[in-house]
Design a protein that fits this description.
about 325 residues, alpha/beta, Rossmann fold, seven-stranded parallel β-sheet, 12 strands, about 35% helix, globular, binds 2-keto-D-gluconic acid
């Protein structure tokens, strides 16, 4: 019976499904050596906490399928997998609603002071005076950075609220332009017009650290940044400075360069930041759907069938 490594949470019934055909072995997240202790895998179900690169592949010559739990696959060197003829999959689509709805929640929490005023009641401030007004969120402008599946779903659910949606990508998305859910804007124009700027880009060498001081300075002082992408797409020092000096009004962050975020981190000392523990897709229903897709992908690849959501299937077949 072939071996499958598991390095991501998986419901018992889906584990049992795999165990019908494979020796299923749990390998701690982040393992990069000592694989001989776990066996010689045919497949690996992993997530963003585990790197899969040329060094990993050299240690695992029997590996012939990698299934990434998550739409983001920045911990996987897909080019190295392709060179080694190891197909890789991710789990796009099934998490769009979950991530978009948390993004909407953070937009409303920022705009209407939901977290801030919860504390205002709890600490007795309300007994002294009624809180200052916030601002309407309807009638405001949202700038989506990285208009992919999640960005589109976000645009679809905020537009009915009367929020204008702009977007910026490296290239315009005709399907989005034709749909009317969002309008393309040049980078500076979008940042200058937006009341909320929401990041939904993948983490790549091009996007790593791309949002910097100069970008914050293009935003309105009343504007907010939301990061649902990866912590590393933003220069964290520049973000902290922008929050401290009033360059922007606040931020809501679901992702961080270091996860879990230490309680001592400087971001947590700021009162104009809302934080979440990388919770975008973390609902029972969505995470199950992601794992089901990931296990389907893994089984397809191990049986030589084209998986539903491949990252390099065609490249391997044509090489
Ligand atoms: C999860 C994510 O945190 O899909 C992604 O890229 O960041 C989240 O859905 C990830 O799947 C790790 O489990």
């Amino acid at each position: 019976m072939e071996t499958v490594f598991i390095s991501s949470a998986i419901p018992d019934d889906l584990r049992e499904r795999l165990q019908q055909n494979y020796r299923v072995v749990d390998v701690p997240e982040g393992t990069t050596s000592g694989f001989e202790a776990y066996g010689e895998p045919a497949g690996w179900f992993m997530d963003g906490g585990t790197p899969v690169d040329a060094d990993t592949l050299a240690q695992l010559p029997t590996l012939r399928a990698v299934s990434n739990h998550g739409v983001g696959y920045d911990s996987v060197d897909v080019a190295a997998c392709t060179a080694a003829k190891v197909p890789v999959t991710n789990t796009p689509g099934v998490l769009d609603n979950a991530v978009a709805e948390l993004t909407l929640g953070l937009i409303l929490a920022l705009g209407r002071g939901i977290v801030k005023y919860d504390g205002y009641v709890r600490d007795g401030s309300w007994e002294r005076e009624w809180p200052p007004y916030t601002n309407d969120v309807h009638g405001k402008t949202l700038g989506v950075v990285g208009m992919g599946r999640i960005g589109r779903r976000l645009a679809e659910i905020v537009a009915p609220l009367g929020i204008e949606v702009l977007y910026h990508n490296r290239s315009q998305n005709p399907a989005i332009d034709e749909s009317g859910v969002a309008a393309y804007a040049e980078w500076e124009d979008m940042l200058q017009r937006s009341d909320f700027v929401s990041l939904h880009t993948p983490l790549t060498e091009r996007t790593r650290g791309f949002f910097v001081k100069e970008d914050f300075e293009l935003m309105k002082p009343s504007a907010y940044l939301i990061n649902m992408a990866r912590g590393a797409v933003v220069n964290t020092d520049d973000l902290i400075a922008a929050l401290q000096d009033g360059t922007i009004a606040g931020a809501a962050l679901d992702v961080f360069e270091q996860e879990p975020l230490p309680a001592s981190h400087p971001l947590l000392a700021l009162d104009n930041v809302i934080v979440q523990p990388h919770n975008g897709s973390a609902t029972v229903e969505t995470r199950r759907a992601m794992v089901e897709l990931g296990i389907d992908n893994l089984e397809d690849m191990l049986h030589g069938r084209e998986p539903r959501t491949s990252l390099n299937w065609d490249e391997i077949r044509s090489s």
